[in-house]
Amino acid sequence: MNVSANSANEKATLPLSEKVQEALAITKRGVDELLIESEFAQKLARSEKTGKPLRVKLGLDPTAPDLHLGHTVVLNKLRQLQNLGHQVIFLIGDFTSMIGDPSGRNVTRPPLTREQIETNAMTYFRQASLVLDPERTEIRYNSEWSDPLGARGMIQLASRYTVARMMERDDFTKRYKSGTPISVHEFLYPLMQGYDSVALESDLELGGTDQKFNLLVGRELQKDYGQEPQCILTMPLLEGLDGVEKMSKSKNNYIGITEPGNTMFGKLMSISDVMMWRYYELLSFRSIGDIAQLKADVEAGMNPRDAKVALAREIVTRFHSAQAADDALADFVNRAKGGIPDDVQEVAVSGAPLGIGVLLKQTGLCASTSEANRMIDQGGVRIDGAVISDKGLKLEASTFVLQVGKRKFARVTLSA
């Protein structure tokens, strides 16, 4: 008894060196929650003392292969931990994908087929590798240990958690109270995700704020299996270009990580000066000190646009190249002066003479003729650089550059 108590005290009182404190500050940067911070500080101290890296896990079901910058918030944190020397485990939930994660849902999500899982997993990791160092990333599939469990092992695992504790989960509670069906297999998802932490002997697991319950289950299961419980780090959701809603393709406020460099650069330059610092905090690889200095420079009179350009260059360089960032900046400056970019899409349209509103819709530059008319009223439509104010304009057969707003261009060949 005394030996155990002494061991616990030794672990609890490891001194936190300057290097450990710096690593803790980097880990905490931009996070929503770190549970339990004192435990994680001790894990860092023990890692420094023994030279053994921490095992850091991120589990992802391969259900959304097209990533945007919002998805990279968690991946960026993994990269920071890699840079601190820790072992990152990119866990592809090929087994749990066949169950379907009920997090934040009020209906059962249909499971994916094996073919969908494999296709998405390949695409997901290829895109994630634009952020992670693939040479320092351990790739695992949870079917490695989940498939061998079999029926007996699954029942034994299920015996380690109660229905009452499972119903503490907010989305389950809401669905139960509203009479919305909850399938028994959905209870298995947090159990299997928790078992992943046992199988991998995870020291730290990352996830979005909506994953907190699942991450806590892993912590409890590790205790039950006699392991030191993992710490939990949740990351916030990144706001989109509107600065209000979370970044989402469905809300069209996103920046895709495989979009062209010019498009990424232009979108990043469109965010507000206030939101720029949020993006720096969650997306930039600059040090906390560098960002603080940059913010101080802006407060002292530096043009916020220059700081935003630096951020846009960093992001475009990360997902493309330094040359692409240089080209994107040149393109942005050219557009700001009213110039026409080099990469203008070519569109052929027939039906001349054709009304400007219909033409804008047919070229895809406006979603509807009403939107086209609104853009004309706002002075946002140009033909070969000249602003168009006549909504009744009809264009004859010819070739010209059509522009809507600052970023939408098309070289149109209009025929009869």
Automatic annotation (TrEMBL):
Binding positions for ATP per the UniProt entry: 249
Keyword Ribosomal protein found: no
Motif 'HIGH' region, residue numbers: 62-71
Domain RNA-binding S4 per the UniProt entry, residue ranges: 354-415
Motif ('KMSKS' region): 246-250
Domain of life: Bacteria
Pfam family, one: S4
Subcellular localization(s) per the UniProt record: Cytoplasm
Keywords, alphabetical: Aminoacyl-tRNA synthetase, ATP-binding, Cytoplasm, Ligase, Nucleotide-binding, Protein biosynthesis, RNA-binding
Main location group: cytoplasm
Reaction(s) the record says it catalyses: tRNA(Tyr) + L-tyrosine + ATP = L-tyrosyl-tRNA(Tyr) + AMP + diphosphate + H(+)
Record family assignment: Belongs to the class-I aminoacyl-tRNA synthetase family. TyrS type 2 subfamily.
Subunit structure: Homodimer.
Task of the protein: Catalyzes the attachment of tyrosine to tRNA(Tyr) in a two-step reaction: tyrosine is first activated by ATP to form Tyr-AMP and then transferred to the acceptor end of tRNA(Tyr).
PANTHER family, A to Z: TYROSINE--TRNA LIGASE, TYROSYL-TRNA SYNTHETASE
Protein name from the UniProt record: Tyrosine--tRNA ligase
Source species of the chain: Massilia terrae
